[in-house]
From TrEMBL:
It holds the Pfam family CN_hydrolase. Transmembrane segments: none annotated. Belongs to the carbon-nitrogen hydrolase superfamily. NIT1/NIT2 family. This is Nitrilase. Residues 6-265 form the CN hydrolase domain. InterPro entries: C-N_Hydrolase, C-N_Hydrolase_sf, UPF0012_CS.
């Protein structure tokens, strides 16, 4: 690999039922060690990962989303310490899915994705758009800040699941320099999985960017949020010269845990010069006054 290449691993993460935090921590170490053994410099885990910790409590808490959210807060500091330690020990950038965090201590939760660096650095991005399920919960609130950050010499941004379906915030991240979009996700239906996949492909096309999506897998019938999980982890690229025609650099299949892809940012930039189309360069054309608003027109009478 060259200095302009990052090897990324995206997880198709099998939801389990850990008995305690130590068992959860052992599982993270095993999974992330596999990613590192595959040469990954960045490993991406899925949205709602923290809700797996709901299994460490009794049945009445496991089956109650609100009770689970309250209960898992006791693990927040241990969560930060765990992934910070694994990032340092494995020399690996980690996007640790998301933790539903009561950031103000008032029973209102942010769906927060933490990223950890090998040098001990840590940052986070909150989910900005809430799904119907999250709105119905009544205690989850959207984030209020959009971020980008430097990762192994490149600029990246996080768009959590539903957020990757919205072009304008992602465009703002890309206009701030992001060429890698990281999308931890959790979907329970084929339709949901398709929406996120199409969102990933569209954002890659529009912005000439790579998109790395992790997913949850399997069944956790004890949890109202993680009950059923559908989809494949994948890494996407724009469909252009020198890049995959279907936009898919790598994807999981069946019981495969990780999909690996080498992201060549020099090749991504070079594709701009021989582009078949250039959605990223032509984006501003959408704002021409003549087409900023659609006009209603009348049928001409045939003569």
């Amino acid at each position: 690999m060259t200095d302009s290449t990052i090897r990324v691993a995206v997880a198709k993460y099998a939801i389990g039922a850990p008995r305690d935090f130590a068992e959860f921590a052992d599982k993270q170490a095993q999974w992330l060690s596999q990613a590192r053994a595959g040469g990954a410099q960045l490993a991406v885990l899925p949205e709602y990962l923290s809700l797996e910790l709901g299994a460490t409590f009794g049945a009445s808490t496991q089956g109650d989303l609100h009770a689970s959210l309250v209960a898992i807060q006791q693990y927040h500091e241990a969560w930060l310490a765990l992934f910070g330690l694994l990032a340092r020990e494995l020399r690996l950038h980690i996007v640790a899915g998301s933790f539903l965090y009561d950031h103000e201590g008032r029973g209102r939760y942010r769906n927060r994705s933490y990223a950890f660096a090998p040098d001990g650095g840590r940052l986070w991005q909150d989910k900005l758009q809430l799904t119907g399920f999250e709105k119905q919960a009544g205690v989850i609130e959207p984030g209020d800040a959009l971020k980008t950050f430097d990762l192994a010499g490149e600029r990246a941004g996080i768009a959590i699941c539903y957020d990757i379906e919205f072009p304008l915030p992602v465009r703002a991240q890309c206009e701030a320099g992001a060429r890698l979009l990281i999308a931890p996700s959790c979907t329970d239906t084929q339709a949901g999985a398709t929406r996120v996949r199409v969102g990933c492909l569209a954002r890659a096309l529009e912005n000439r960017a790579f998109v790395a999506q992790a997913v949850t897998a399997g069944e956790a019938l004890w949890s109202p949020a993680l009950d059923t999980n559908t989809g494949e982890a994948a890494v996407y690229a724009p469909m252009d010269a020198g890049l995959p025609a279907d936009g898919v650099l790598a994807t999981t299949r069946g019981h495969q845990r990780w999909a690996f892809a080498d992201l060549d940012f020099a090749a991504l930039e070079a594709s701009r010069e021989r582009a078949q189309v250039a959605n990223d360069r032509d984006w501003a054309g959408q704002w021409k006054p003549a087409i900023a608003r659609a006009q209603r027109t009348q049928w001409d009478e045939g003569r």
